[in-house]
Every structure is written in C-alpha cells, then in structure tokens.
C-alpha cells in the first residue's frame, strides 16, 4: 500500500513537473475564439483535444482576444481562428489587433482559419487576402447540412500527401465564396455543391459545381491553412476533418507535416 | 412538421447550447459577464477553469469567457466585463504581465468592477505592490501550508451577502490550508471565513517557527478597491478540491458579489443552515 502510494505520488509529481516545464519542442498553438454564432464553446476544446492527441502541440485558448497585440501572438507558432463577428452586434477588433495578426503571419508564423471564421471581418479587405476565400454575406450560400465527398485536388502537398477522398458528415458545404485571384491561393480539396439540395427560398441558380473546401495561402513569410469544413460538433468528428485539421495546423506552424495519416484515409486503402 | 421533427432531433442530440448561440439576442436579462484570466500557473489551471465555468453556468446568471493568454492584454480586453477571476501565477519571467496590462486590471477594478482572487493567484506578481493591496493578503514570504488534509471552514461574518444564509461552517476535503499569509494592514480587508491551522500537521517541518498548537487563518475575505470589490478565496487547490459544496457556493456567490455588490443566488440545499 505504502509502495503503491509512493509510486502514485511519483506519477503525480511527474505530471506536475511536466506542467512546470513547457515543452519547447512542442508547437505552441493559440486558439482565438469567444465570439461566433457557431458553437465555439464546444468546438474549441474539441480542437484542443485532437491537437493534443498527436502529442505534437501545446495549446492555449483565448476567449477574449480584443486588446491583443503582436506581443500577444509572437510566443506562438500558429494561431487558429474559431471566431466570427458576422452578424453579431459586438465590439470589433481594433485596427491594432488586426494589424498584429497580419504582421504575425507575414513574419513567418502560421494561421489556421476554421469554417465560419472565413465569414468574419467583412469590413477588413486585407483579411480576405490573408484567408484566400471568404464567406461573403449575401453572396455565399450553402445547402442544408448533408453528407458529401471531399475530393483531394493536390495529393503532393504536405497536408494532403497520400490522403484519399473522404466523407464529410452532416456538414455545410460553403459555396459561392468570394475568392482572391487564383494565383493567390492554392486549393487542396473541393466538394461538389449539388444545387438540387437547396430549398426554393435559397434562390440558388445555375449548374452545380465544385467548390473549394481547403486551401493554403502564402502570406509574406507565413503560411495560412483554411478549412471551411466542420460546421458543428457532428461535422468535426469525422476522420477526414480531424486528419486535415491537425496536419494543416502543423503545416501552418512549420511548413512541413510529420503527423501520419490514419490508415483508413491513406490512398490505396481498401474501401 | 418535418422541420419541427428535425429541430427536435437536433435539440436532443446537441442540447440547448447550440440553439442558445444561434438565437440572438439571448432571452432574459443581461447576464453578468465574467472573464477568467489563466494560462500560466504551476497549478492545474487546465482542470480548474472549465469547472469554474460549469459552476457559474449552473447558477444561470453568468456568461463566462476564459482567456489563457493575457500577458500583454490591452484596454479592449476588459471592455464589457463585470468581473475578472484570476487563476494565474507568474512563476517564470515569461509569465509576467506588462505594466500596461497591470494598470488596466487596477483601473478595471477601481472603476467599480469586480475581481476574484483564487488560491494560488495570491502568489503572483511579487514585484507589484498595488496587486498586494488589491488582494488584501498574499502567499508571499513566510506563508506556508501543511500537507493536503480535510479541514473545517467557519464563517466569521454571516451577514455579508456572500455568506448570508449559509450554514455556519463546511468541511473542505483534501485541500491546502494557506497560513501565515502576508496580510495588508488590518481594516483594509474584511474576513468572511477562517480555518484552524493545526500546527501538529506540519510534523516539525515548518519553514517558520510555529507558535502555539494552531491558529485561525483567514480563508476568505473581501477588499474594497476604489469603486470596486475584490473577493479572495484561498481554497480549491486542485480540480477535485473545487468540487466541494462549500467551494462552489462561495465561489459563485463571491463572483456575483464582486460583479454587482449583491448576491441573488438561492442558498444551495447542501450549504443551507440546519433548521434544527
């Protein structure tokens, strides 16, 4: 019994020591959240959880980023936006905070833009250049949530290398985004936006088409990975979302990916 | 019919939170806006802060945000909040706050807002005298504690809004009992609760001389700072220790009082005064 207690206390103190010494070899991640008409309170701990699972990240979440400066961001290798002020009557980010994010990324750091974060800051043109494609209120649309296939368009990029097409589950498929000139962003994956799935009141006309779902943007010396998958807690729990999110975060931070693909998502795997 | 069925299924699957966030504006009166400031501490802030949010959510009158990066927060960070809760200690140089952020916290509280200083946060900012005055008492210098044990917390002011109607004492399980803290001058803080620090529990290993068999140590107190209010609670060392009925009730009541100067929450049954 005494011995068991001793071993237990060793284990506990090892845990405490691990907390005391931040592991500099781990990628330092700051998830920026706290405002969104989407379920950020559930999504951000989930995203921290899947990053932690890989053993490669140390994650902090801030639910109040207004007032932040470049110094706030610089200790981190990558920032993840789970944030949207679209249609919210809230205090906006100050120009200083906006500039801090741009300077941070262009200095050689990473940014991950997640789902509805692509709809934020519609009054900030440089954010559109940073993100590559944004959800534009009044222009962009999506059919009701449904299952659809995510087609990989670049199987050589570090994020998607060896990745097979996968299914998005009960997710939104963002369409008619407002995109930068094609040379400014690099599409990794698309989804087929089936216009027959829309309701008449959506007034979506024209033929169905492929829409970009994941892409990268070079921004100064930095890297941006945008994924518009993951509308809610159902949609983020698919193997495809998880694999691309954690690999995209590593790539945005470091420019390379060491996190292995799960076998079922490796091209050549049996269907 | 079909839509309502889908909505009902979705409500079952995801609970009310999804819909609460989708519907704007939220129904009912404005909730007390709480900012928990954390992210740096050699205590279990990752385990404790979600529990604090859970306790506050259960009270139904708070909306809580947690900031795990605050070291150089600017003025916008405090806008819209009624009360800040500190779960923070700057053990390493890089955990330090900028002077601007320090002054913003002081200005926030003194302007009439609230601050809750929790347990190990009283060890923070040793080079910042205004912080010590804000806290009323700090775990600095000769402060110490016995090994984790069970002890009784006694309310010594049962008329204060935070403690009014609560049982006269509660047992705190497996917690640290902070003792010999560096208190500000008497009169600058108001003690709500004490606990008996049993000197025999130090087993002769105390860092400072122990006088007598024990001492009643302040465990919770309040401080007036400008137009603002501070509630300090020394209990809740671990995530488990924060789950006691006594911690929960005093924490949520303390946060409300710090925010508004009043407490409207009913006394929970497990903390009510015995009727016979």
* Main CATH class of chain A: Alpha Beta
Shape type of chain A: globular
Quaternary organization: heterodimer
Shape of chain B: globular
Annotated CATH topology of chain A: Rossmann fold
What is the gyration radius of chain B calculated from CA atoms?
20 Å
Straight-line N-to-C gap of chain A: 51 Å
How would you describe the overall organization of this protein?
- The complex is a heterodimer of chains A (271) and B (276).
- Chain A has helices spanning 2-20, 40-53, 70-73, 95-106, 125-131, 239-254; strands at residues 27-32, 57-62, 78-81, 110-114, 133-134, 146-152, 166-171, 178-179, 186-193, 209-219, 222-227.
- Chain A is an alpha/beta fold and 271 residues long.
- Chain A has one domain (24-260): Class I glutamine amidotransferase (GATase) domain (Rossmann fold).
- In chain A, the strands form 2 sheets. A 9-stranded mixed sheet of chain A has the order 2-1-3-4-11-10-9-6-7, with helices on both faces. A two-stranded antiparallel ribbon of chain A has the order 5-8.
- In chain A, strand 1 (27-32), helix 2 and strand 2 (57-62) form a beta-alpha-beta unit.
- The termini of chain A are far apart.
- Mean pLDDT of chain A is 92; it is low at 1-21.
- The longest helix of chain B has 21 residues, at 2-22.
- Chain B has a 9-stranded mixed sheet with strand order 2-1-3-4-11-10-9-6-7, with helices on both faces. A two-stranded antiparallel sheet of chain B has the order 5-8.
- Chain B is globular.
- Chain B has helices spanning 2-22, 45-59, 99-110, 129-135, 245-260, and strands at residues 32-37, 62-67, 83-86, 114-118, 137-138, 149-155, 169-175, 182-183, 190-198, 214-225, 228-233.
- Mean pLDDT of chain B is 91; it is low at 5-24.
- Chain B has one domain (29-265): Rossmann fold.
- Chain B has 276 residues and is of the alpha/beta class.
- Chain B is built from 5 helices and 11 strands.
- The A-B interface holds A 16, 19-20, 30, 34, 36-42, 45, 60-64, 66-69, 71-72, 75, 87-89, 91, 93-94, 96-97, 232-234 and B 13-14, 17-18, 21-22, 24-25, 35, 39, 42, 44, 50, 65-80, 91, 94, 98.
